[in-house]
Every structure is written in C-alpha cells, then in structure tokens.
Amino acid sequence: MSRTWASDRDGGLLLFRFRGVPVLLSPSWWVGSVAVIVLYAPLVNRFLPEATAVVSILLAAAFAVLLGASVLAHELGHCVVALHLGIPVRRLRLFLLGGLAEITRTPRRPAHEGVIAAAGPAVSAVLAALCGFVLLFMPAEGPVWLLVLECAVANVAVAVFNLLPGLPLDGGRMLRAGVWAMFGERGIGTRAAVVGGWLVAGLLMLWALWGLATESPDRWLRLGVCALTAWFVASGARGELASDQRPTWPEGLTLAGLTRPILQLPAESPVADALSAAAGRGVVLVRADGVAVGLLDPFAAERLSELSPMAPAEQAAEPIRPESVLLDSEPGEDIVERVQETAAWQFLVVDRDGRPAGVLRREDLKAGLAARQTG
C-alpha cells in the first residue's frame, strides 16, 4: 500500500490505496466525528471521574477515530473477499453513517454474495473479541483501559448494526443470498431483503418514538440518530430495488451489433475536418507519439467548429478513462452495469490486445435493449 494525500472529485480525501483500491474519507465523516466527540465527551466522566475537560475531549476524539478505524477494517474485509473472488472494487469510502466498499460487478452466485457480506461483520467480531480478551488482563481503570473498551464497543456496534436483516446492510445481503440460493432467483432475494430494510427503518423510528413517549433522558439524541439511520436504510433499500430492476442483456444481442465503427485521426486535425470525416462513427484522436488523447465529442466539436473550424480536434476530445473502456469479450450483463454506473455517454470498446474495436454510445445501448425486449 502507498500513502498519497490528494482529493477525489466525488469521494473525498484519498487516504491510501489497498491493492489498487482507493480508500477515501468523505467530508461528511468529519461532521459525524465532531458529533461523536460532542456527545461522547460528557460520558467519559462516568468511567473516569478524575478526567479533566481536556482529557475527556481527547478520549472522545480517540473514540471517534477508533470508530472510523473499525468501520475501515469492516469494509476492508468486504474488499479482500471480493478481490479474492475476482470481483473488482471501485473504491472504499468512509462517510457520515459508516462506510461503503463499492463493488463494481454484481456477484454471480449467492454463495459469493453471502461470503462477501459476511466478511465485514466477521472482521468486526474478531476485533471486538480481541479487545475483550485484552480487557480480561487489564485493571478496569485509566485511559488505556477506556481506549481498549472503546475499541471493543465500536466493533460490537459496527457488527451488530450491519447484521440487521435488511438492505443495504450486510445482514440484508446475507438474507438476499439465502433466499436467492433457496429459490434460484436473485430478484426474489432482493425483494425479501428490501422488505427487511423497510422493517428495520420502521423499528428504528418506533424505538425513537417510544423514547419520546416515555420521556427518556436521551430521547432527542435517539430521535436524531434513529431518523438519520432509518432514512439511510430506507433509501438504500429503495436504491437496491431499483438497481435490481435495471435492463438485462437479451438473448441474441451482441456488443458488435451495437457498437459504431471506429476511426482514428490525428489529435491536431482541424475540428471541422474531424467532424466531416466522422460521419456517425466513433473517432479516437491520437497524438503523434501514438497516445490516444480521447474520443471526439461531436457536440463539443460542433460548437468549436462554429467558432474556430481550424482548431485542433483535441480541444473537443472526451478523455478516455479506465471505467469508460469496455472489452469486446465482456458479458452483456457486465456491460449494462458498467454503462449504468459510469458517468459517460460513449465508451471505447477494445479487443483482448487493447486495440480499439468500436465505440458504444449510451443511447445505442438503450435503443438496442428496448428493441429486443419489445420484440
């Protein structure tokens, strides 16, 4: 692993890379950590009556960091197992309500779904058990004891919460895997786990309302935490249901039948000439050293051509990013997922040797899927 401090435009601060997977710290994590410090600092005196205000704040800050580290270890568990099974992971992100290992391809077997989901809680349980074992040999006093206790509590909390049987939590993914294995259809498992997610969200709100009805001392804190968590679970369950209902790859449809022929032009070609030569084809712009600088964006090229027809076509190029490159041998289901999840409107298709084979446009894929499904 290498440590590089940088920013990701939509993920947050890049902490390091784990086996090539970027680990990002979202800005919302800092908000959650400040909230943990404010709420937890007054509780330190219950364990350490002699602690000063400064010590209480420092120990509360340590708890926030340990909680973040526990979530990170939990998500790395998912990441390791997914990579071991050959399933790519786009990134790992820590944010306000926890963390997320963004797996770029849906597991093809229920066993894979189940083992990836179980890996996170398993890591949290092991860390909690290790901390509990250490506590057996420590006197129940002092800052060090409290830090170990905090680490144990943090990992227990992460494990227990994630084992709740509803999507998008790990327990929901394990439930989906079980139902999927039982009935042989992933969609049935998804619907069952989505219902579980809605039930979890409802129970969280009922517990919060019970605190208000009984005038519990922590009723307002409970209401805020439960409302935020219930929203996260409910919206995540809804997103999982929508994701599972995306178009599938019809029988008989081929990627070659959807891609546009490709034309390679020098990057310094006049934009007006590049537009004229394209004639509906995809255009890869290549520098003199053989490096592809991008795909010609016909809309940007038209605007540029109106202002300056002799401007280099490179100025109207859309960069070729790793996520916008498709292998011509990729399964159709993977292609649908990639296009759905990538913010690009055209994709470069290459063969096994990396040679350009065509360009797939988002609207061409949509039209091809719709034509096959209606036909």
Q: Gyration radius, to the nearest Å?
A: 26 Å
Number of strands: 12
Beginning-to-end CA distance, first to last residue: 50 Å
Secondary-structure content class: alpha/beta
List segments where confidence is low: pLDDT < 50 over at least 5 consecutive residues. 1-10
**Fraction in helix:** 55-70%
Mean pLDDT: 85
Topology:
Elements: E1 6-8, E2 12-18, E3 21-25, H1 27-47, H2 53-84, E4 89-95, E5 98-103, H3 110-135, H4 142-162, H5 170-183, H6 186-213, H7 219-244, E6 262-266, H8 271-278, E7 282-286, E8 292-296, H9 298-307, E9 317-318, E10 325-327, H10 332-341, E11 346-350, E12 356-361, H11 362-374
Helix pairs in contact: 1-2, 2-3, 2-4, 3-4, 3-5, 5-6, 6-7, 8-9
Structure commentary:
The chain has 375 residues and is an alpha/beta fold. The chain has helices at 27-47, 53-84, 110-135, 142-162, 170-183, 186-213, 219-244, 271-278, 298-307, 332-341, 362-374; strands at residues 6-8, 12-18, 21-25, 89-95, 98-103, 262-266, 282-286, 292-296, 317-318, 325-327, 346-350, 356-361. The chain has a 5-stranded mixed β-sheet. Strands 6-7-8-9 form a 4-stranded mixed β-sheet. A 3-stranded mixed β-sheet has the order 10-11-12.
